[in-house]
């Protein structure tokens, strides 16, 4: 492995993780990653009934008596919760702060229908502040935005005597939930603008060229291979946020959706007509016939409120005033990077 702080900083800002496994922030501190499941080892499916069957098979291999489920207000986790035994602890994060989205009311409906024990875990900025350092030192790179709330839930689950958590974060990746990213066929340059989190050159004085990695997702006709990018880049960071938080607490994890793959291409036109995750929607109706299908909610954490008073990084690696025009989510990313660099200097 090679220490390349410049590359690691740039990769993290752009993609939320370090895309090159051989490059690390500091000698002796390899960064952990989410291990993707090869397609040939996944369970094939093409119907809602196939997904139903595969979820059952995935859950059969774990000890459900000592397993909880991460439950939001959305349909992905609601479906998984419906397969859990009565009395299972279902954990919902309730982020506190201005404009935070409360998913507990909708999540409670699922628990009531399937006799699950609803456990609400409140998460505020203090929890983020407490969780960041141990997470970053465990995984060898700055946090992914929703990690600290998953970390607090993992700690609670461990205290409750559980050793595994079921989650469904990759349903969006596997079954066409990224409706905005799938809304059109993207040109190469415009896909970079759409998919990148923070342009390194707008934040760092001496950024690395991370755009070379986009070349892997450029088609011969100049268009972007956005489907592969979503699966291989976006999906890795999405899955890692929960799995690394669990690993940091010694808690097992399973995402049944990640263990599946569609044997037929996504029906992009259905998605663009407003029917994202059409197979998941069908399965939700099968499992919750008395409820309307919940539409996708904005992120529950109030990043804008939490980062409102932060004036930006002060370390020499950063451009002065670089955080001025960033969103709350982008500020949280830059803040995490600076905080991690400070830890490395201690």
Automatic annotation (TrEMBL):
GO molecular function, one term: asparagine synthase (glutamine-hydrolyzing) activity
GO biological process, one term: asparagine biosynthetic process
Name of the protein: Asparagine synthase
UniProt organism field: Butyrivibrio hungatei DSM 14810
Highest taxon listed in the record's lineage: Bacteria
Domain Asparagine synthetase: 67-204
Gene3D superfamilies xref list: HUPs
């Amino acid at each position: 492995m090679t220490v390349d702080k410049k590359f690691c900083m740039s990769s993290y800002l752009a993609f939320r993780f370090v895309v090159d496994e051989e490059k690390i922030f500091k000698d002796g501190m390899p960064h952990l990653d989410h291990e993707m499941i090869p397609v040939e080892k996944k369970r094939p499916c093409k119907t809602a009934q196939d997904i139903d069957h595969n979820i059952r098979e995935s859950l059969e291999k774990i000890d459900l008596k000592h397993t909880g489920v991460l439950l939001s207000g959305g349909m992905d986790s609601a479906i998984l919760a419906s397969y859990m035994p009565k009395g299972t602890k279902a954990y919902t994060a309730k982020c506190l702060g201005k404009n935070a989205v409360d998913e507990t009311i909708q999540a409670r409906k699922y628990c009531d229908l399937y006799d699950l024990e609803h456990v609400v875990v409140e998460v505020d900025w203090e929890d983020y502040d407490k969780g960041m350092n141990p997470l970053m030192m465990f995984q060898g790179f700055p946090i992914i935005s929703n990690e600290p709330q998953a970390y607090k839930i993992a700690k609670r689950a461990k205290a409750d005597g559980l050793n595994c958590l079921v989650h469904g974060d990759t349903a969006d990746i596997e079954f066409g939930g990224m409706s905005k990213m799938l809304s059109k066929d993207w040109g190469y340059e415009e896909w970079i603008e759409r998919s990148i989190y923070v342009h390194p050159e707008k934040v760092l004085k001496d950024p690395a060229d991370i755009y070379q990695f986009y070349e892997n997702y450029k088609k011969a006709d100049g268009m972007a291979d956005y489907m592969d990018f979503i699966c291989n880049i976006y999906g890795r960071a999405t899955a890692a946020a929960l799995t690394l938080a669990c690993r940091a607490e010694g808690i097992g994890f399973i995402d049944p959706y990640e263990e599946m793959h569609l044997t037929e291409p996504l029906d992009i036109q259905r998605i663009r007509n407003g029917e994202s995750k059409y197979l998941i929607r069908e399965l939700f109706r099968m499992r919750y016939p008395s409820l309307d299908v919940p539409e996708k909610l904005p992120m529950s954490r109030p990043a804008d409120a939490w980062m409102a008073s932060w004036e930006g990084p002060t370390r020499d690696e950063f451009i002065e005033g670089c955080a001025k025009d960033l969103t709350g989510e982008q500020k949280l990313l830059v803040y995490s990077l600076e905080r991690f660099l400070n830890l490395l200097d201690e």
